[in-house]
Amino acid sequence: MTPLSLTEARRRFLDGADLPPCSVPESILRSWRRCQGLGLDVGRWRPPSRLTESELSALRDENADWLQLARPTIDALFDSVLDDGHVLIVADRSGLILDEMGHPDFLDRAERVALTPGMDWREDVRGTNAIGTALVLGGAATVRGGEHFLERNRQLSCTAQAIHDPQGQLLGVIDVSGQPRRLHDAHRLQVEAAVRHIEQRLFDRQAARLHELRLASEPALLGTPRCGRLGFDEEGVLRAANRGALAALGLDRTALGRSRFVDLCGQSLEHWLSRHGTHVASLRHAGGVLSARLLLARPPGELAVPRQPPARSRETSSAGRANAAADRLDVGLPAGLLDTARRLLDADIPVLLLGETGVGKERFVQALHADCSRRGRPLVAVNCAAIPEGLIESELFGYEEGAFTGARRQGSKGRLREADGGVLFLDEIGDMPASLQARLLRVLQERVVQPLGGGAGQRVDVRIVAATHRDLAHEVAAGRFRADLYYRLGHYPLRLPPLRERGDVAQIAGALLADHGGAQRGITLSPELAAFIRRYPWPGNLRQLDNLLRTLLALVDDGTLLTPTHLPDTLRDDAAPQAAGDAALQAALARHGGNASAAARALGISRSTLYRRLGRG
């Protein structure tokens, strides 16, 4: 039998006729039935009132804890869907839209169906829709065109994923919406990946207080974001879990607070430690066998987990504060740099960070925010190079209702007002359009934000951190950056050195490797690879080195000694001992009886590279 089309299936459903196999997913049919049971009318619907600006602001404050942590991931997702003409929506656990970012061409359409901040998109209010249905399911939902229960929403296609904290509590939902023919499976995967990353960061924040059991189908995945994670308190009670661990063990979130280590692993926490310690072991369960590793909240023998980290006195000495900061940053970064930046920021002096691309400016700013007097207030980041020039003014300063075509009906606060009371990070400020530099200077001087479209100016209390890879003095001389803004920001510019100037880069690599769990998995650097790391120029700086090490950890088994042979081909050819020249190559050939393949393997290069350096190819 030929499956029914969506249009015909919808007609039969509304007529109360039986449905043979059709193109409507079962999850959509169940949602339609829920909506019908609630008495929703597909053709007649009156939207509830929108939250006032003060009510919306209060709702955002209620969700500020997880929103602030999720903001970098949300911004990255927005950047990836903007060019496709979509909007990105963040809603709270009750389906109220907290924020919306999107392409101007689609914002007007979203406004016509009230897909805007302050509006309620629960399934029992809006019928079948990705936001409300994802919240009902507690997971993912994709709703395309005519799959929406209400006729007025058929012009949308949406994909959403609910966000849970490690204790299983529903926090909210991330949604991408667009025109029916322009939303693809790739967007669904992007949303799911973003939510996984946010949930990973939420788990990381609590992992230090719990004994963590990591699970994976194979040992190589235990140190990657793909592994399952369970957190147990000192009594062995399950207190935290990610969705990967729950799925692997066939559990749901009701297990949190009820299941114990012994129930899930067949032995007590103490017995596991006595048998396996923190090494990889096999965990047998109803679904098969998993690789597992236990990470303790404190060193072995100290099973008690402190409920709260010790409070840090603000009278901590400068040296102690600098040492703590150095622990949070990367080895090789001047320890006094963070303390200097903190003193400037706490004195309301703008912090200007200079450094090449990839030196870790964003990581530095996150550590600075965590160390300064405003660490409990918002940290709002704006990448001046990533936002299209036509949008950056409204993004930064906000706008009033009707300020331009596609503007939201209730306007937008803008990032400056979102950062009120906290810290605003202007990344790549050297790429800010010249037309906006004068407005920013005026805000820095007067502390008053004037949104687009007029209206009364609003006072803001923000501390400014700016960063750029450009030589701003040169940009000023070339007329591309205002001299007065440069001198307003650059009271005491701080330079983050490139990786090649941070001392022993192999030591930095070792610290990064340990930070990503390499030491716990018994993965170390060979002397040959350490030598390569020291002499390679690292044009991508810390980001390039960090990404390489993360990748290698995902690809190798526990206990691996990393050598140049583990490098990708693009780097492996550069790992050969250049200074040794032909003599080293000839010696390697001689040691292996002229076997070019064996000599190349010993040198950590490809055979074609060996021939090329010998002048044979």
Automatic annotation (TrEMBL):
Residues 337-554 form the Sigma-54 factor interaction domain. Gene3D superfamilies: 1.10.8.60, 3.30.450.40, Homeodomain-like (1.10.10.60), P-loop containing nucleotide triphosphate hydrolases (3.40.50.300). It comes from the Bacteria. Pfam families: AAA_lid_14 (PF25601), GAF (PF01590), HTH_8 (PF02954), Sigma54_activat (PF00158). The keyword Chaperone does not apply. The keyword Nucleotide-binding applies. Keywords: ATP-binding, DNA-binding, Nucleotide-binding, Transcription, Transcription regulation. Residues 301-323 are annotated as: Disordered. This is AAA domain-containing protein.
